[in-house]
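On clarity, I found the account of how folds are encoded harder to follow than it need be. What matters is that the chain and its backbone geometry are given together, residue for residue. The format is easy to grasp once an entry is in front of the reader. For illustration, here is how one protein appears when written out as sequence plus structure tokens.
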Amino acid sequence: MTEETQTPEAGKKTCEFKAEVRKVLQILTNSLYTNREIFLRELVSNASDALDKLRFRQSKGETPSASDLPLEIRITLDKDKKTLTIADTGIGMTEQDLADNLGIIARSGSENFLAQLAAQSKTTDDKGQARPADASQIIGRFGVGFYSVFMVAKKVDVISRPAFGGDGKAHMWESDGLGSYTLSESSEEEPKRGTKIVVYLKDDAEEFSEKYRVEAIIRKHSAFVPFPVYVDGEHVNTQTALWREPKSQVKPEQYKEFYKSFTYDSKDPLDYLHISVDLPVQFNALLYIPDNRLDYFGQDHEYWGLDLFSRRILIQHHNKELIPDYLAFIKGVVDTEDLPLNISRETLQENRVLRKINQTIVKQTLGHLEKLAKEKPDVYKKFWEDHGRIFKLGYQDFPNRERIAGLMRFNTSKLDDEKALSSFDEYMSRALPGQKTFWYVSAPNREAALLNPHMDLFRKKQIEVLFLYEPVDEFCMEGLGKYKDWDFKPIEGATEKDLKDFADKNRQNINRYFASGWNRDGLALLAAGDLLDFAPGPAPRHLLILLTDASPNDSRRIPPSPENPLGCGYEDAAGVADAAAQVRVLQRKGIRVSAVFMGEDRSAADAARIYGKNMARIRGMDQLARAAGRLIQNEIRELGD
């Protein structure tokens, strides 16, 4: 694998890499990559691993050399010398370890590295253009992570002193990345334990000797490593990897503070979910629901996905394989130890680990939303107002379609206003006996939906209608197809057969309020619109009429006529006089006429001229029984009932 020669300088051994290894080094040394900063991520990751190994040995009762040293990573910059030095107090390496770990690139991995790089260069982007090979995307997959340093270094010194075993001496590994390296004993006092790497920067890489630049890289890629990282004496990674902490030990304020620092959002999150899973894959996740709406159908369509970490080291921002698009509103992080560091984006898209994480996140998120809807309906309503538009895309998730449908909310014809929402289950609880269909109508707003001419029939039969205000809603209904064996159908497509089992509910609606004792011989209860259908027979002693009102241009308006003088919505004084005359005729026949009115002020004044004190005004059908009772009570006493 390497060829060893003795150098003139006493104690130094020079080793030549094999041809394929030199080729890898040549690529890394002489090529320019858009993401050269990842070399520092690799070095910090290696340092963190060395500290982890030391801590593990300590947990087994072993005592390292210089046992009083803290477990930490220190980065020192020298702009004049153009050097970057990174030192850890980890497990360290012997001379043989240096040869084995740094002298041979991933053992047999170099050929795989070259093959992957060649394959990558043959791919194309979204526009069909040839995609340039980018080693930064596959460094680390084949053990060449350390050698990413040669993207920015003209020379590298590695000095290491082992924490356990050996003779306690430090040894140095040196290379210019051109195909050979030297090994020698080091006379330097540092490090007392662990490894120190001195990077001599290329002229075009001087930016990495700037403190602000290095700090930014640490915060971007390595902010959550479990050991303190210092840059020129300043502690940089002060934030805790909250998702790795036991949930019982994290306070709500900590969750909120982390969210704000992570997303730069000034508002607290609407809600959050902390997940820790060991099977079928191991991962931790911290997910947030923002308290604001983002335009995922517009300018924000690319800015979604979760940040993917491997052992607290960032692998990829905005990973879209971890959540489906209908959960794009979720912000957060996922950290797993089941992925290699710096796995390529192409491999991520095909990775079974990510698919299993995705399935678990979806299951847990839906369960969390179901609990939120049940226990905190006001918070869930806010969630739906902010994110319901994107969540509706879940109709495409066939395995979870029933659960997703159960979480959907829509305005309906039986709700008080445009902001009120109903679930499908609540709709079903209000449905008429025998109804097995969700009826819906599309409209830009509630007013337009109510004015749809097809609504007349459904209003008359008192069948509730879902109002769909968003373009995605119709796709949603068609995509769902069914919910708990109920069909979804537009009111425009309703046939006589669909509605034949549902009679006109006007008279039935009134009788429902007075079914116990009120609807008896001699007492007729009907709506104004039913007068023409009132069957001839013995004259009733008391005629109670339900009046409703409509605007002049409303197709629902009941125009006055001699045949229907008790209708509502009189347009002129003559119509009012005619109706009043008809009432007097009925009264002369011994029929007591009363009215319950629901409508506008102008029409209420007209109705009062007709019915006088025998009229009660209501604002909604829920007030009908009480108002009618007051009108009829005196008459009941007079009749001796």
